[in-house]
Amino acid sequence: MVRPPQPLVYVFLIDVSVNAVASGLVATTARTILESLDRIPNKDKRTRLAFICVNSSLHYFAVPPPPAASEPTMLVVSDLDEPFLPVPHNLLVPLAECRSGIESLLNKLNDMFANSTSTTNAMGPALKAAHKLIGNVGGKIICLMASLPNVGPGKLEPRDDKKSLSAGAEKSLLQTQNSFYKSFAVECSKSQVSIDMFLFSSQYQDVASLSNLPRYTSGQTYFYPGWNAGRSEDAIKFAHEFSEHLSMEIALEAVLRVRASNGIRMNTFYGNFFTRSSDLCAFPSFPRDQSYCVEVAIDETISKPFVSLQAAVLHTTSNGERRIRVMTLAIPTTSNLSDVYASADQIALTSFYAQRAAEKALSSGLQDARDLVGGKLAEMLQTYRKELMTSNVGASAPLQFCANLRLLPLLFLALIKHVGLRKSAQIPSDLRSAALDLLGTLPAKYLIQYIHADFFCLHDMPETAGRQDKETGEIGLPPKMNLSSERLERHGLYLIDDGQTQFLWVGRDAVPQLILDVWGLPALEHVKTGKTTLPVLETEFSQRVNAIIAKLREKKGSTVWPNLYVVREDGDPSLKLWASTFLIEDRADQGQSYMEFLTNLRERIS
Amino acid sequence: MIRSTTIVRLNDKLPLAASTDDSQDQSDLAKYTTEEKEIIRKLNGTSEPRASIESGPYNHHYLIANGLIYITICEKSYPRKLAFTYLDELDREFINSYGHRIDQPDLRPFAFINFDNFIQKTKRVYEDSRTSVNLDKLNSELQDVTRVMTKNIEDLLYRGDSLDRMTNLSSSLRAESSKYRKAAKQINFDAMIRQYAPVVGASLIFVFLVYWIFLR
Question: Is the ipTM of this complex over 0.90?
């Protein structure tokens, strides 16, 4: 063992520039951390916390251990070129011992910066200082920012000129502007430091550059565009997600290696981590809500009936035990192509291609990513037709595919039309970068929901929906429908949920009784659209609708709390347009409908 | 300055606890941690229970107690006495908290890693060798030595005292016994005289009469 098992270390870098204070970020962060102190994994009592507030200078907080009678003190360092630590001790303090000091610090945090007028955000120097603080132990740095870092190393310029959303510049907008973010990420990965980004700006925040830090240090980027604590839904969403994030029992100082039988080689690795030495993946911290893909290449002809794959993760648990978790899989081999097609799993294929497309978009651009996905699908269909269709197939023959892959064209279309990859001149690059991040890290179950949203009809739901099942105690859900607007009835109430956002669609001819039941309002005109919380009323229908929404919001293995938007068919057109982009089977601006897509595919492969 | 501390089981060299060093610049310690592992490997039940090993700008101090090795790497300038007091304090607290579990055969490496909190706290206290607390500790150690020394001197003094008394007694005995000898001699002489005085007197008178009668 090179060194003793690492303790869990969290450093909070909180932006306290005027944007952050005005939007209520500082207050909500302090309160959420205060409430989550009990949930942070601390079984071995070694968990340590540090707080650094950032605006035009770095504010460190020294929390003296309990026998000392003094309160936590703030030390301000304005030297941004060579950030140094003002005191050698008491900056990184054990949670169990200094609990009261930390609590008093958090209580005062918002007041300390309430009058801040600084518009500069020195996040680059702050990151370097935090790295210096915990570089010897390793740990997690959590950055909460509401503005663009604009001083020091890591300085970013606002580069989202609306004109440059055209095809050519799109690619460069998705890549990092400043090489600091990649080189610093590698440095952090070496000293077992992982970085998470929580971004809250209402203006351009260059998510593309900032998300490089989590990407190469196995962290995660959380993007809350236009966040404001004044809206209670925003505050609840952030508080819930942040609290879940802090209470995750992550593993530390982890490495992953995948091996296989002779003749099989691991080709490429996809996900948020740093690939050290061609087959070792380094994770300074191993989260529990991300997924990773390994592309396997066959080098030699395999003659054995089985091949085995083994993945081993060497890690330290959050309570200080060093462990190796090994997973072994044996898969049968075949020399028959139809067996390969019959055993393919469409969800796995979609996840894999989502990760590949996300990576391709970042390296060569969105059009290449879309072409990759479309091309691969065409290739699969073509091979199927050529090799496996025995009867003579003319040009007018229908498109054929094996039964287990029959939804693959729909899923691939959903991927192409997804906000991360979609061809459109109106999607801001921040939104795209955040979406590409999610495409690259969501676990398969949530990824499928993310690209192909769940669509429920609420006004016509069966009796079991929204009510607790007597045997399992689970709330029943209505059946899912195809994502097509032909399902939308004029008088209906529908719910679209993609895991990150929920839309409650109300038709323009909705009966007043429905509006009364769900909102307690007399007519449709009074229903407010946009981000809202549904009132919980006494009516049975309201109870059921709320139960369904609540059930959809509780997700195992994911920290996300979706926001609910109410969309009226005769209401705000931009909101309506946004909601209808989720109905992927329809034709959209520059996107094909499902039927058109299939027709094009058929022509392409014949 | 104390740079690093490790606690290892003596018989199978299983590491039980260590400090997760959070001071800056630990990269230069890599060579010394390797040396520390070498030292641990060479120690066994017959080794010297307390020793310091010099190595470049650092010293390795170790203490073997209760079947455990407590070893620390300190800078050369750090007082030895203080380092061993530090190790003693770690030993007391460790045995107090985990003493009953150290002999289990199935212990994981670093099973008691949460002792690290106590190590950090204690290290903080001992860190500044110039603080008055540490000076007091040093002083009390010195005082201890003087108290023990004083005790010995007192013993010595009492021993000297009784010796004196002995000499006095013996010299007085000698004086008394010589006095008695003289007295005894005197009495003997007196007794002899008393015994022989009438005979000597009578013989003297006889001799005088004989002389006066025959020689007139």
Answer: no
